[in-house]
Specification:
The complex is a heterodimer. By secondary structure, chain A is of the alpha/beta class. Chain A has nine helices and eight strands. In chain A, strand 4, helix 4 and strand 5 form a beta-alpha-beta unit. By secondary structure, chain B is α/β, with parallel strands linked by helices. Chain B contains 17 helices and 19 strands. Chain B is globular, with a radius of gyration of 21 Å. Classes of the chains: A alpha/beta, B alpha/beta.
Chain lengths: 200, 472
């Protein structure tokens, strides 16, 4: 299974500001009553996007000028809370290809990387610059460059960061580790044999 | 060179380095439940893979089970579908399933320890962020996503980078009416909801040495609420005494060898840490949350923060957003806030000692009129233990509905939900917006005894006053 080498993501961006946006906010628990991830995209940020009767609240994702955005901007500690992969799955299935935030919760970050959806960090000031550009030019292109670790938009460039193991996995097309883990199975058996609780 | 427990367990379970620099880490014990596993089995089938070590995966059902309906099919067809899917997957791949008919079903983080599956010096993973609970035994236990559930099923390993280790030492005796739940709420308040990102938390000090296993589990459980994916306590005699005789614990002939092996994993004196935090147990008060994340906590005698007292622009924005959602008045005492619902249970506080402590104080008292109060044991075994001691009757006489085991109103994936903007005094672990099943529902986290005090007074109250607590 050859994986794509994800060296850059380009597209339009939308800013969903706020700190500590938790995975219950990203995908409320009631939408996890499913046995596949299909269709989760439509429930992304559901309770902040929709009223109880299904009509729309004021939310960046509801604005027509931001429809079709593929890069999500947000604040600090994005994706905190539950380990539910339903959260990055919902973001990806909605159509996003990358997230730029000040920082990410640990489990969310790993889950996203394994889906081939880069999560990169930037300073608050730089995210504000990208958000301001997007606000003024909703159709403007934003490019996340994982090789140079920078974001380019409207003639500006800002620095981004990403944990090296994740960046390496994305740009070299090994972000889903399953193949490599399977290759290691003979070594797994050797390690397991040394541990008394696994010997039985 | 002296090592801490995290490093020792990590080293013992390292299979090899992967190309991107991560470690292929052996996961000795894998726990699964109905919400995050069906897609993983689907991926396994799509890839034509088998379960590599089926005897090292254990399943139970907890998130979606109704607590007031025992006979299938469940009223909710989606819940029934998830139940059926797990049953089918376990049967097909030869995985042990603690189904309701076994009498051993319950919240996955309660079942593992009570079966003796959770052991010191082991690695554990489960598609649930509260897997950190198992660290109470000196295990390194990770919450994982569904793709990693697939990885563990297929290979009994996953790709991970090592964590830094922060030692959190709590020393001294807790004051009367202060519980393990208050300790972890205090820690999260102090270090922040993302203070632990990239860290494993090692909980240590005389307070933890004196804690029971159930108290240690309560603290480790909420590590993730402080951003730490892993939390643990070094194994000691308390740990070994808890495990002895449990179904999956080593048998008599292997017991001594197992204990000495387990002891070898405890952090060495002189081990290095990336950070050390020290807390005086006497400084910890009964703690309640007032906001929309577990770090927004105050002691019961403090006032609700106001935007004017914010320490930063971020803090100010956080306070404004939280107060608007919680509909609480800035600057007013939290004590006296009217509640609608009282919830006892969850993987944080749904164990025997939690119900014992509540029963001790609530005996002969009544839940205030108009308050819905439910008590949900964390497992069928906890339920049975409580029933044998008559705790269910004490709670029922007080006005709590005694329910069947499951996650219930902690995340409300079953029928137990808040309605509208009801305010719930809850012994669970998350107060996120909408967490308890209503998009405007409100949660205040606290210890079980504080929930009991709120239930009998109909408002957020100081359990020490309500129940005249003078000693623990």
């Amino acid at each position: 299974m050859a994986l794509a080498k994800i060296t850059s993501v380009s597209g339009r961006a939308v800013n969903v500001p706020g700190n500590d946006i938790d995975t219950d906010r990203i995908i409320p628990a009631r939408f996890m009553k499913c046995v596949t991830f299909d269709g989760l995209g439509e429930f992304l940020f559901y309770d902040v996007r929709k009223q109880l009767d299904g009509t729309e609240k004021t939310h960046p994702l509801n604005e027509s000028r931001f429809k079709g955005a593929t890069i999500l901007l947000s604040g600090a500690n994005f994706g905190c809370g539950s380990s539910r992969e339903h959260a990055p799955q919902a973001i990806a299935k909605y159509g996003f290809k990358a997230v730029i935030a000040e920082n990410f919760a640990e489990i969310f970050f790993g889950n996203s990387t394994t889906l081939g959806m880069p999560c990169v960090t930037a300073s608050r000031e730089d995210i504000a610059k990208i958000a301001a550009f997007t606000e003024a030019n909703p159709q403007g292109e934003v490019v996340i460059d994982l090789v140079k670790l920078e974001v380019r938009f409207g003639g500006q460039t800002v620095k981004i960061a990403q944990r090296e193991s994740a960046r390496d996995a994305l740009v070299n097309g090994r972000w889903d580790a399953i193949g490599e883990l399977i290759d290691g199975l003979p070594a797994v058996k050797v390690t397991a044999a040394k541990l008394p609780y696994l010997a039985a | 060179m002296p090592k801490n427990l995290f490093q020792k367990v990590w080293d013992a379970h390292t299979v090899r380095q992967l190309a991107n620099g991560q470690t292929q880490l052996l996961i000795g014990t894998h726990l699964i439940h109905e919400v995050t596993s069906p897609q993983a089995f689907g991926m396994l089938r799509d890839l034509g893979l088998k379960v590599a070590f089926p005897h090292r995966t254990f399943a139970t059902v907890d998130h979606i089970v109704p607590t007031d309906q025992f006979i299938e099919p469940y009223a909710d067809p989606l819940a029934q579908a998830m139940m059926d899917e797990l049953r089918k997957n376990c049967a097909q791949f030869g995985i042990t399933f603690f189904d309701r008919a076994t009498g051993k079903q319950g919240i996955v983080h309660i079942v593992g320890p009570e079966q003796g599956i959770t052991q010191p010096g082991t690695t554990i993973a489960c598609g649930d962020s509260h897997t950190s609970t198992h660290g109470a035994f000196g295990a390194i236990a990770f919450g994982i996503g569904t793709s990693q559930v697939r990885d563990v099923l297929a290979t009994q390993t996953m790709a991970l980078g090592a964590l830094k280790v922060r030692r959190i030492e709590v020393n001294g005796k807790l004051r009367p009416g202060v519980y393990a739940k208050d300790v972890i709420l205090h820690i999260i308040r102090m270090l922040g909801v993302n203070g632990g990102t990239g860290f494993a938390y090692e909980y240590a000090g005389s307070t933890f040495d004196g804690f029971s296993m159930e108290e240690r589990m309560t603290v480790c459980n909420m590590s993730i609420e402080g951003g730490a994916r892993v939390g643990y306590v070094n194994p000691d005699e308390t740990t070994f005494a808890y495990l002895k005789g449990r179904p999956y614990a080593p048998k008599a002939e292997n017991w001594d060898a197992a204990v000495s092996h387990w002891k070898s994993f405890a952090s060495d004196s002189g081990a290095a840490y990336d950070d050390v935090v020290k807390i005086n147990a006497a400084d910890i008060a009964p703690t309640v949350t007032w906001g929309i994340n577990p770090g927004q906590g105050i002691s019961i005698s403090e006032n609700i923060p106001s935007p004017e007292t914010a320490t930063s622009a971020d803090d100010k924005a956080g306070i404004i957003e939280a107060l608007a959602y919680m509909k609480l008045p800035a600057g007013a005492p939290i004590k006296g806030t009217k509640i609608n619902v009282a919830f006892l249970g969850s993987c944080t506080n749904g164990r025997l000692s939690d119900f014992q402590e509540v029963a001790k104080y609530i005996k002969g008292r009544k839940v205030a009129p108009g308050i819905k109060a439910i008590a949900v044991p964390g497992s069928q075994i906890v339920a049975l233990q409580c029933e044998k001691l008559g705790l269910d009757k004490i709670l029922a006489e007080a006005g709590f509905e005694w329910r069947a085991a499951g996650c219930s109103m902690c995340l409300a994936m079953n029928p137990d939900k808040l309605i509208g903007d009801q305010l719930c005094a809850s012994s669970s672990n998350r107060n996120f917006k909408g967490r308890q099943g209503s998009t405007t529902g409100r949660t205040i986290l606290m210890s079980p005894v504080m929930v009991a005090a709120a239930a009998v007074t109909g408002q957020i109250a100081d359990a020490r006053e309500v129940f005249s607590v003078t000693q623990n």
